Amino acid sequence: MKILKFGGTSVANAENIKRCIAIVEGKNDSTIVVVSALGGMTDLLQTTAVLASHKDSSYMQNYKTIEDRHLDAVRALIPVSNQASVLSNVIRQLNELETLLQGCFYLGELSSKTKDVIFSFGERLSSFIVSEAFKARGKNCVRIDSGNLIKTNNRYGRAVVDFEMSDRLIQDYFRENQFDIYVMPGFVAESKDKQITTLGRGGSDYTAAIVAAALHLSELEIWTDVSGIYTANPKVVKQARVIEQISFQEAMELSHFGAKVLYPSAIEPILPKKIDLYIKNTFEPESAGSRVTHCSLDDDRIVRGISNVDNIALMTLEGPGMVGVAGISKRLFEVLAKQDINVVFITQASSEHSICFAVTSMDAMRAEQVINEEFEFEISYGKVRAVSVELGMSIVAIVGNNIKSHQGVSGKMFSALGRNNINICAIAQGASERNISAVILEKDAKKALNVLHEAFFEEVVVQVNLFVMGVGNVGGKFIEQVQRQKLYLREHLKINLRLIAVANSTQMMVNPEGLSDIEVSELKAKGQVMQEGDFLRKITELNLRNSVLVDNTANETVAMSYHAYLRNSIGIVTCNKVACSSSMEYYKSLKSLSKKYSASFLYETNVGAGLPIIDTIKNLVASGDRILEIQAVLSGSLNFIFNAYDGGMPFVEVVKKAKELGYTEPNPYIDLSGVDVKRKLLILLRESGYFFEDVDIDVQSFLPHGGAAISEEGELYTALESQEDHFSQLLKAANDKGAKLRVVASFKQGKAEVGLREIDQLHPFYHLEGKDNIVLFYTDRYKEQPLLIKGAGAGAEVTASGIFADVIRIANKLN
Ligand SMILES: NC(=O)C1=CN([C@@H]2O[C@H](COP(=O)(O)OP(=O)(O)OC[C@H]3O[C@@H](n4cnc5c(N)ncnc54)[C@H](OP(=O)(O)O)[C@@H]3O)[C@@H](O)[C@H]2O)C=CC1
Ligand SMILES: N[C@@H](CC=O)C(=O)O
């Protein structure tokens, strides 16, 4: 014999009921079918009854909906030839319901007893209709009145089952009757004095479990609208998947913390009888579903699932008068129990100075009031403080039988949350060690679930969410490279890069699911207007895990806002040199914020574009070496300019060409004035461990006008045009000596300078082609022969690939 329970959505209408019928008919065995009320019907009955008892005549409209839904189901399921008798039975039951509702309306009253009778109509009607549908298909089917088999006390709303009596009645009934299909209403029972009672939330699961246990069946199938118990709520965690097998204890823990597929009450009767439970999807009957089993599972999964409950209030009772005093917790929890307030989480530090616990937000005010009344005396003498209440909390819990036999699980859980800036307000781990729970802010719940799911179920694929500012030469190429390389990264490096937002100086485009190429290209046409601070606000509002800002601008305001990103645990990858070359204080603060908030701060492209210069210094310094001297050509654009300026083209045209090729800064004056090289040298010195400010570097400008900065490109070109003589003289002087012009950055014996130099043929800088950079590091270990790094030091493609490498460094660190 089989037993199948169908939930509300499975029997919501005639079409769905037909699916249930097909599933039952596929069983080829005598089958007990337990049904819930038509989907949403119990809630509708409840609001209708409440409206009636408040003398609100609109209850009649609800009643009409109740009537229509049931009559529609009959008309669609029963052939016209048989409809009359079925319809008249349903109408008779509906009339009874209408009379009861009228009674509530006239009396303005709704007792718990009346509620149970009214609510029972949902399952009584659905079971009658389903059984008649089977009969209409020629099945040997009977409808059982559950009240005849399941006996309870008179606690209306959540009646307590008399198992001894119910088991006997169930066993007798099934011994004495021989049908192919038995249809029973779930949720409904009867007291010993023959009053209708109901079994509370999840009552239909409970009914099925009681019957399965009484008959010692080997399994119970719960058919619902999802394909089983998921590793996490699939509406919140996209990567969640169905758990194929789970132990009863794990399922109980998960269902306690919000996995609504299964009510713990359904587990209670079948657990001691070693009956397996299957959760299956009525709408995808072929999918395997979840098996909840008493057998020990031999897989090595440590965490089986993650769950959460929202709308939690965290309450703390604390004070010196609690230490070493017996009975405080008894009084605290007794007063809550008296008020029927359910405590969902408790934790107490060994100092005994405080007890922290959680209730649903709905109960919080009542709990606060009764606790403060209970401890009025202690509060008035300052021994205990008035209970504190923090609303807007969630509980997240990881669940698994094997947590107890593995070290480091809680470490992994809390470091994953911490890395993503999720503040943990309280922690609890029961003695069973099957569950580790944390109370966090509700606004962080979605992120926490995804972070934990990634840590425990998707270890192989790490998701990095990119927020890109600046889509010019470098930014544009970076986006192109990311979109092109996505598949490779996912397959080969197990990194899932998602481009969530892009921005230029005035607009931004955001898609929390990831921007497509088309969306990115529509930034200018369709992007939303962006004011200062909007981008950061958007990132923090989305609150996605592993968020990284990629700054491809040359903008100072953006650079000076990095600290706010880091404080929100948002990593930063930047090719913008302004931050690291601003004050030493800001540079250092960014480094320490990066550590404090576990948010990476990477800027390899600040010097030498894609060349691994900063990383090399970091490794030298970390391994105990000391940088003693630096000789370098650090400007790709200036190297290009002085290579290309050979007397053929005027200087200004060569500069324009460098700009066109994407080698210069957005404002080429920053290159020509030596500012860009100075910034780079400053960064190299700071990375080498030297305390240097901008003013400590001597820049000898090769521009004749010296003084004022030129921010307008046109103005710069006009000035350069008029100074052609000056540049041609510089060139001639070098040519006369067989030398080449190079802008050299040097650091020697504590002195740092930047200037245009004539480089002779024997010098390693002489043969420096095109836009190349070169750096020579003299260190304790590389004293005679310097460590040399050379290669393309400018250009959008190479710079973008340097930024990309930093992003991958972050992803690898997370993996
Ligand atoms: N070119 C190279 O070889 C190298 C460049 N770099 C660095 O790369 C950075 C970018 O250079 P490049 O791509 O050539 O410059 P571009 O001028 O081509 O692009 C700059 C981008 O930044 C945007 N932007 C400017 N201000 C803001 C702001 N406040 N908020 C958001 N976006 C803003 C611009 O938007 P809009 O179009 O609206 O102005 C534009 O999309 C510079 O910092 C440079 O030093 C580093 C190493 C090498
Ligand atoms: N403008 C810069 C580009 C890289 O930082 C340069 O010329 O090197």
From TrEMBL:
<comment type="pathway">
    <text>Amino-acid biosynthesis; L-methionine biosynthesis via de novo pathway; L-homoserine from L-aspartate: step 3/3.</text>
</comment>
<keyword id="KW-0457">Lysine biosynthesis</keyword>
<protein>
    <submittedName>
        <fullName>Bifunctional aspartate kinase/homoserine dehydrogenase I</fullName>
        <ecNumber>1.1.1.3</ecNumber>
        <ecNumber>2.7.2.4</ecNumber>
    </submittedName>
</protein>
<dbReference type="InterPro" id="IPR036291">
    <property type="entry name" value="NAD(P)-bd_dom_sf"/>
</dbReference>
<keyword id="KW-0791">Threonine biosynthesis</keyword>
<dbReference type="Pfam" id="PF00742">
    <property type="entry name" value="Homoserine_dh"/>
</dbReference>
<comment type="similarity">
    <text>In the N-terminal section; belongs to the aspartokinase family.</text>
</comment>
<dbReference type="Pfam" id="PF03447">
    <property type="entry name" value="NAD_binding_3"/>
</dbReference>
<dbReference type="GO" id="GO:0046872">
    <property type="term" value="F:metal ion binding"/>
</dbReference>
<comment type="subunit">
    <text>Homotetramer.</text>
</comment>
<dbReference type="InterPro" id="IPR001342">
    <property type="entry name" value="HDH_cat"/>
</dbReference>
<keyword id="KW-0028">Amino-acid biosynthesis</keyword>
<dbReference type="InterPro" id="IPR018042">
    <property type="entry name" value="Aspartate_kinase_CS"/>
</dbReference>
<dbReference type="GO" id="GO:0004412">
    <property type="term" value="F:homoserine dehydrogenase activity"/>
</dbReference>
<comment type="similarity">
    <text>In the C-terminal section; belongs to the homoserine dehydrogenase family.</text>
</comment>
<keyword id="KW-0915">Sodium</keyword>
<dbReference type="Pfam" id="PF22468">
    <property type="entry name" value="ACT_9"/>
</dbReference>
<dbReference type="Pfam" id="PF00696">
    <property type="entry name" value="AA_kinase"/>
</dbReference>
<dbReference type="InterPro" id="IPR054352">
    <property type="entry name" value="ACT_Aspartokinase"/>
</dbReference>
<keyword id="KW-0486">Methionine biosynthesis</keyword>
<dbReference type="InterPro" id="IPR045865">
    <property type="entry name" value="ACT-like_dom_sf"/>
</dbReference>
<dbReference type="InterPro" id="IPR005106">
    <property type="entry name" value="Asp/hSer_DH_NAD-bd"/>
</dbReference>
<keyword id="KW-0418">Kinase</keyword>
<dbReference type="GO" id="GO:0005524">
    <property type="term" value="F:ATP binding"/>
</dbReference>
<dbReference type="InterPro" id="IPR036393">
    <property type="entry name" value="AceGlu_kinase-like_sf"/>
</dbReference>
<keyword id="KW-0547">Nucleotide-binding</keyword>
<dbReference type="GO" id="GO:0004072">
    <property type="term" value="F:aspartate kinase activity"/>
</dbReference>
<dbReference type="InterPro" id="IPR042199">
    <property type="entry name" value="AsparK_Bifunc_asparK/hSer_DH"/>
</dbReference>
<dbReference type="GO" id="GO:0009089">
    <property type="term" value="P:lysine biosynthetic process via diaminopimelate"/>
</dbReference>
<dbReference type="InterPro" id="IPR002912">
    <property type="entry name" value="ACT_dom"/>
</dbReference>
<dbReference type="GO" id="GO:0050661">
    <property type="term" value="F:NADP binding"/>
</dbReference>
<keyword id="KW-0067">ATP-binding</keyword>
<dbReference type="InterPro" id="IPR011147">
    <property type="entry name" value="Bifunc_Aspkin/hSer_DH"/>
</dbReference>
<keyword id="KW-0479">Metal-binding</keyword>
<dbReference type="GO" id="GO:0009088">
    <property type="term" value="P:threonine biosynthetic process"/>
</dbReference>
<dbReference type="GO" id="GO:0009086">
    <property type="term" value="P:methionine biosynthetic process"/>
</dbReference>
<comment type="function">
    <text>Bifunctional aspartate kinase and homoserine dehydrogenase that catalyzes the first and the third steps toward the synthesis of lysine, methionine and threonine from aspartate.</text>
</comment>
<keyword id="KW-0808">Transferase</keyword>
<dbReference type="GO" id="GO:0009090">
    <property type="term" value="P:homoserine biosynthetic process"/>
</dbReference>
<keyword id="KW-0521">NADP</keyword>
<dbReference type="InterPro" id="IPR001341">
    <property type="entry name" value="Asp_kinase"/>
</dbReference>
<keyword id="KW-0520">NAD</keyword>
